[in-house]
Specification:
CATH class of the largest domain: Alpha Beta
Structural class: alpha/beta
Radius of gyration: 32 Å
Shape: elongated
CATH architecture of the largest domain: 3-Layer(aba) Sandwich
Strand content: 15-25%
Distance between the termini: 48 Å
Largest sheet: 6 strands, mixed
Helix content: 25-40%
């Protein structure tokens, strides 16, 4: 079975029909322009060595070469054998705040969508690490258990919105507890061992009014689980949009006195949580996600052996489409648009048949 290392580049093949259409249009315009000066019979007399099929053959060769070059750049591969390997990595629990304040738009498009992009970018930096997703507001639950299937994790990530939890609030402490649970802490079927290969990443605006998050982070650190935090939002704050069931914005959240509620990033809270969890706090902005320091901390975690796996060892086969493309380009160069009057192929064939 053929596997493409850069399958996303195959979308470039869609440009080939566009190039063909542009060539046909130019050829049509050229023919219309020539018909203004002479009819087809007169044109054949004026240019007796013109050929109808040679330009068609040349563009066919060019388009074929282009298609083969795109396939070669996508690097077709074939699995030659199955190899038994050992997966090494760390365990990460990502706790994502989905309270209503995460809909504030001081980060574009809003805090929640920006957080989801941060998680997606984080997964591109992981190599063999397992990840779990915990969502929280006034309460929390495990959205995605510990896995190394990043594609499945992204599918679950796309489904997250602020309507998943009806109880509003920001219970960061409870979320850290759920993160510990997703890492295996308190599981009766598995014996918990303190190893320095686990981390919890809390992504929130830090408006914590529900529980003692610092105590939860301290308890995690005592079990050798590092707790890092990423602040979403700006210190000056922003109003919280209110939407109808159809998704139309109807205004902004107001307090009992009718004043618009402004939600602000609580950096001090998030920094204290990270300090208690032996981790690091960073603030995400509109331009820079700011989690490079967290990536460095994750990379310094101990790597553990998860399981022995069987995987296919692929071998690249880009040489074949590349060679075919070069042959097509060479033929296109050697093929002239007009017939060579010095070489009469019909007479050569007749002489060959007579000699036989």
């Amino acid at each position: 079975m053929i596997h493409f290392q850069h399958s996303e580049l195959l979308w470039l093949l869609a440009a080939i029909p566009l190039v063909l259409g542009a060539w046909l249009w130019m050829r049509f315009r050229k023919r219309k322009a020539l018909q203004r000066f002479a009819d087809s019979e007169m044109f054949d007399r004026l240019i007796p060595d013109s050929s109808k099929w040679r330009p068609v053959a040349k563009i066919a060769l060019l388009l074929t070469a282009l298609a083969l070059l795109i396939v070669a750049v996508a690097n077709p591969q074939m699995g030659s054998k199955m190899v038994k390997g050992e997966r090494m990595g760390s365990d990460l629990a990502v706790c994502l705040d989905i309270s209503n304040s995460m809909m504030a738009e001081d980060l574009q498009p809003n805090r929640l969508e920006r957080s989801k992009r941060v998680i997606s970018n984080l997964m591109t930096q992981l190599t063999g690490d397992r990840i779990s997703l915990v969502v929280f507001a006034g309460s929390s639950f495990i959205q995605m258990p510990l896995t190394n299937d990043y594609s499945a994790t992204r599918l679950f990530l796309d489904q997250i919105d602020c309507g998943l939890i009806a109880t509003q609030g920001t219970a960061i402490g409870d979320a850290i507890g759920k993160g510990m649970e997703s890492l295996g802490y308190g599981d009766e079927e598995r014996e918990w061992q303190r190893t320095r290969n686990r981390a919890i990443i809390v992504i929130s605006d830090g408006e914590n009014f529900e529980d003692n998050a610092i105590e939860a982070a301290t308890q995690a650190a005592n079990e050798d689980v590092m707790v890092c935090t990423i602040g979403m939002g700006l210190p000056e704050g922003a109003p919280i949009p209110v939407y109808s069931r159809s998704g139309q914005r109807t205004g902004y959240k107001q307090d009992r006195d009718g004043n618009i509620v402004t939600t602000r990033l609580n950096e001090q809270m998030l920094a204290d949580i990270a300090h208690a969890g032996n981790g690091v706090y960073v603030r995400a902005g509109n331009v820079n996600t700011g989690f490079d320091e967290i990536i460095k901390r994750i990379q310094r975690l101990e790597k553990d052996s998860f399981e022995e796996t069987m995987f296919a060892e692929y071998e690249s086969r880009y040489q074949y489409p590349l060679t075919a493309a070069l042959v097509c380009l060479l033929l296109e160069v050697l093929l002239f648009e007009r017939r060579n009057r010095k070489i009469n192929w019909q007479k050569l064939l007749e002489r060959t048949s007579d000699n036989q």
